[in-house]
Amino acid sequence: GAIEEEAQPSVVIAKHFQDRFDDCWSSTWGGNHNWLRISRVLLCLGRCSLPKEQAAFMEALEDVAKQVPQCAPSIKHWREKAVEKPVF
Questions:
Q1: Out of 2, 30, 79, 82, which could bridge 58 as a Cys pair, Cβ 3.0 to 4.6 Å?
Q2: Residue 8 CB contacts under 8 Å (≥ 6 apart), including other chains
Q3: What is the DSSP letter of 43?
């Protein structure tokens, strides 16, 4: 039989993005602990051999960074983690 092509993952910004903005994206002291979690997620996706998911998440983050200028300093760190590959 035919081999079914695997669908490409995608990450979309939720409709309630603005409603959750203060909880998730505010940066009262120049940073946000959620942004560190994002770095860890990107790192883990790469280490777990999930490069398509890693790329989809990073693509969404690039869109978020355009909407949330206060996270601009973090985008360079996210890009670094988005190229992480398995350690074995």
A1: 82
A2: 52, 56
A3: H
Look up residue 14 and give its amino acid: A
| Residue of 71, 58, 63 lying closest to 28 (CA atoms) | 71
Question: pLDDT tens digit string along 5-24?
Answer: 678 999 998 898 888 877 77
Average pLDDT value for residue range 40-46: 95
Helix, strand, coil percent content, the chain, rounded in steps of 5: 60, 0, 40
Interatomic CA distance for residues 24 and 68, integer angstroms: 11
DSSP state of 2: P
**Chain position carrying tokens 């979690």:** 37
pLDDT at 82: 94
- Write the CA distances from 7 to 4, 29, 42, 50, 56, integer angstroms: 9, 40, 20, 13, 12
